[in-house]
Design brief:
- The protein is of the alpha/beta class.
- It contains eleven helices and 13 strands.
């Protein structure tokens, strides 16, 4: 059986990995003022420039049920079945639209990732690996559903002004963070983003502390692969993250740019390490 593994443009995998693993992508729409773009047609730099100029965050259009139906039907012309992994239902109504569309197209299995960015990407790579082992689409979907609970998805944020604009922190917290140079850790839990730790100091040092504490807290990683995903980052930040991932023993360390979902909520110099935390139980 020929199985399509599919994601939305919020997956943040590199073009090379998407091609290598034959992962199909349906794009969100990004709205900057009165301009509408397909996700991928604009860069994070352009998003930051727009926000800095206007003070307004970009918006995204949820993919509607009709678009998903057309997309799934187009995939079924080439593939026998589709395993589609959605952006968390806690962040977008697109997931429910995809589920509704799948009811009208035979052999389409939709999974709510309860995640974002390369957390979705990790699930997609896993799904393709299972397909290569000869599992059916239903078996793949079931295994991905089970494993999504083992994702470790977090980022450390340099600035709180984007979170403030998005209504995720108040003015007092923003002022205090600016004065004290507080850098929050944003974690994805139960499908939503929230802050659970705070660091202080320059990002070059904060990244090391963030990686150390994250790896100690989520300390049974599947060492096959890890993503260092960032909206933008200095060479020092990336080097710190790579050093900790190498020290932890990860075999494949991938770097990728965060797309509009993370970037528009967290701003520049946001960086995270993302991996499966089920190395002992895989």
């Amino acid at each position: 059986m020929k199985i399509a593994v599919s994601v939305e443009s919020t997956n943040d995998l590199t073009k090379e990995l998407l091609e290598q693993y034959d992962i199909k992508v349906i794009p969100y729409q990004i709205i900057l003022g009165d301009q509408v773009y397909k996700d991928g047609e604009i860069t994070t730099t352009e998003i930051f420039e727009y926000v800095n100029k206007t003070g307004v965050l970009p918006k995204t259009n949820a993919i509607n049920q009709y678009e998903y139906t057309e997309y799934f039907e187009s995939l079924k012309k080439e593939y026998d079945a589709v395993v589609h992994i959605c952006l968390s239902s806690g962040l977008s109504c697109s997931c429910q639209n995809a589920i509704n569309a799948s009811k009208d197209v035979e052999n389409v299995f939709v999974i709510d990732s309860l995640s974002l960015s390369t957390g979705i990407g990790l699930l997609a790579l896993y799904a393709r690996e299972l397909a290569l082992q000869g599992l059916s689409a239903k078996e793949i979907a079931d295994k991905v559903e089970q494993r999504k609970e083992k994702l470790q998805v977090s980022f450390v944020v340099e600035r709180l002004d984007y979170l403030y604009k998005g209504g995720r922190c108040n003015a007092l917290a923003l002022l205090g963070a600016n004065i004290l140079k507080i850098r929050p850790r944003i974690v994805v839990k139960n499908g939503k983003m929230g802050s659970d730790k705070k660091y202080r100091g320059p990002m070059g040092k904060v990244i090391g502390k963030y990686c150390e504490e994250t790896l100690n807290e989520f300390n049974t990683p599947d060492l096959d692969k890890v993503f260092i995903t960032y909206s933008s980052a200095t060479p020092e930040m990336i080097a710190q993250a790579r050093e900790w991932c190498e020290h932890a023993g990860f075999k494949n360390i991938y770097q990728s740019f965060a797309g509009c979902t993370i970037s528009s909520h967290c701003g520049g110099n946001t960086l995270g390490i993302l991996y499966f935390n089920d190395g002992e139980n895989k």
